[in-house]
User: Fold these one by one.
Assistant:
Number 1:
Amino acid sequence: MQIFPRWTVKIPPMLAAAAALGGPVVLGGVWYYFSPKHTDVGYQPKQPVPYSHKLHAGDLGIDCRYCHTGVEKSAVASVPPTATCMNCHSHIKKESAALAPIRQSAADGSPVEWVRIHKVPDFAFFDHSAHIAAKVGCASCHGRVDQMVHVHQEQPLSMAWCLDCHRDPQPHLRPKTVSVTDMSWKPRPAEVAANDPNTRHDVNPPQNCTGCHR
């Protein structure tokens, strides 16, 4: 008994021809459009509290390290505890409906369910403190958060993107006189950075697998 029609025997050659003709195009499209540059850049989840970095870090000039206290001494920058928010909001906007989750958290100890935006894969290791010590500024990875009402992911944080900086870190290394939290500072041409005596020139970030995959 013939289970499949006779014309089905032609399917494998047809698929082979299609793969030969369109395979590179399809693979190229997948490689380009499924990369973090297109899937992750612009990611902007809704947060439980409409916290504005533009207001706090921009208009009010609050230093990043006031909230992200771990950035200089640990691998993670850390999410600020509710107590940090209440340092101000126990006196300012005490009745704001938008801040109800903060007040609830302070009252009963329940966590505020902030949604993490910037994250490298679990198989990759990233140390904030090492980058801060080398004078890589916050804006190099996170963009101008002082201008963002709602924070979004500015860079792809992909392996290729990280390696581009590791291969030529000098443009992103700030002079000793410039704070890493100065959002207005911009990366400089490599030749300018190389001739600046106030810039560290002994930085040699790893380019091998074990530098980030441990």
Number 2:
Amino acid sequence: MKVLVVEDNEILSRNIVRYLSSREIFTEASLDWEDWLYKALTKHYDVIILDINLPRKDWLEVCKTIRDRGKEVSIIMLTSRWTNEDIVTGLDIWADDYLVKPFEYSELLARINAIYRRRMQNQSNTMICFSDIEINLKSHEVKQNGENISLSKLEFELLKFLAQNRTKALSREEIYEVVWWESGNDFVFSKTIDVYVGYLRKKLWKEVIETVKGFWFLIP
């Protein structure tokens, strides 16, 4: 799990990072909105812990920018404002949860773990994850280490079929029947599957797909 802490109180920010890191959660921190927006848009995080009282910027506007870019990240608001309006606005629009300062670090950890579990449960029917690769079955998006990988329709279907049968060696005939024939592509040269495996190897890390005895392919 990767967490980004956005808090301009340097002592509080450092303490949160230290606490979460001691629980084996990879945690980074930002002290201002420019830095955290850059990190949120260029890196992959599972959870952002956001102080919504940061000066000089509307936090709702920054969250909207992140959502508009298609970033799938959970946001926990930290707020010293004890008003229902602030909380309801955040939860209705962009955020997933909130904590009012001061708070116990153990409670923050519990909120992070609960959000992460919900996200994994929601993704179980729409996501295939292995190694550093995420395959979104709903949006047909593929990410490696948080970066989008552009695939054609057949490349996506091939990767999906291999991922759905991880550790199983698949013959060219099995791949053809599911990826090509069921997709309406009922004519394929014998080497076409090898060509498309080659396409995937160039776009992903080469060791993602293995060749077994020259006849079968698998994702280990």
Number 3:
Amino acid sequence: MSLRTEKPRLEAGLLLRAYANGWFPMAHEDGEIYWHDPDPRAVFELHHLRMGRSTRKQLVQEGFTLTHDRCFTEVMRACADRPETWITEEMIAAYTDLHKAGRAHSVETWLGDELVGGIYGVALGAAFFGESMFSRVSGAGKAAFFHLSGHLREQGFVLFDTQYRNPFTKQLGAVEIARADFQAQLAAALSLPVTF
């Protein structure tokens, strides 16, 4: 299900209310922002996510360094830097405000001083809503993803949303659940006092 947003302008408070109710924004080809609440919903089961041997080997061989929240806006811009993107300047501004408020987070993959991969999303209670990921070097995005999933487990997160299942998220381990099940898991996650 998707609905086109009407003004008011996209801003941090509106995003928080939307995520708390299971909705998230995406820009469509017409340039307008639509709100999505898919059924089924795609999630990652945190207790099943583990970095594979080949990814771990590549992490060591490439000499990647991983950080949290070091350059959130740059990660988001890198995720938007593709021929077809659902991330607009308005969204970048609103999510950057969320990041400044401690609600949106990024994991960065570095090769020396160069940002080569990353992932960002929104944290509410014990729920993390994964938004987008990028790689400029093979394996850099996956390294950020598995680093993030390990961090979420360690912090006590219980829900890792990935919105839609596609060939890439499926490869990472995404499964689909009914919207009603997602809403129940979200309600439970929001009641837990977990911090990123």
Number 4:
Amino acid sequence: MDETIRLEVVERIARIRLDRPAAFNAFGLEMIAFLADTLTGLSQDPAVIGVIITGEGKAFCAGGDLRWIAASGERFGALFHSLAAKYHQAILEIRRMPKPVVAAINGLAAGGGFSMALACDFRIMESSAVLRQAYTSNGLSIDGGGTYALPRLVGLARAMEIAAFDRAISAERALAWGLVTEVVPDGHSLRRAVEMVEEIGRLPLSSFAASKKLFTDSFNTAFESQLEKEREFLALCADHPNGREGIKAFLAKRKPSYS
């Protein structure tokens, strides 16, 4: 097990803690590969209803470890190419996860940490935390799905502003721009993330999974094709035990009991 990633499952909620506080939880190849594998396992674990990602210490995640890159030789491009492959696997696992994934942003989220947070379904940000895309100031281009998520969350003009000027984004501004779901007092992001997953878990996760996939796929799907996908998923959900229970409960005017 990679000691830079800590996994704890409490009452069916997986808590992933990035644990390199001295390096602001920046990741190298082994760390991000282990994170991707961990997410893959949680995705298939029927005992887990949701996942929370947070950081140890003063940062959520500072992205790829540039010190590790610099110490590994002069072939920066090849190293980034390898690192991005594993990092993007982790991002894909977050987006494909048929369960809610919440980023509990306890501190700085920059570079790959910024994009990782954007890939999550929900983002709970502590009031003193800061977001920063950080790529362009270091002569790099945004990755980790950041160029996909940013314009969809804030619009193209705002995304271009974030990319061009790379200013630090406060919690207040992040909430106003739609980059985060909620802002909470310092020290409360994990607790609020747990509450959010618990709330979602009281509803049918089969419906959440279907909606998440439909939303994720919608940006690359023609309208007619999206309608057909909606029809297929609607039928699948209706045949699922949760769908049957929801319909019966509605007709009987009682509270549903979902599996």
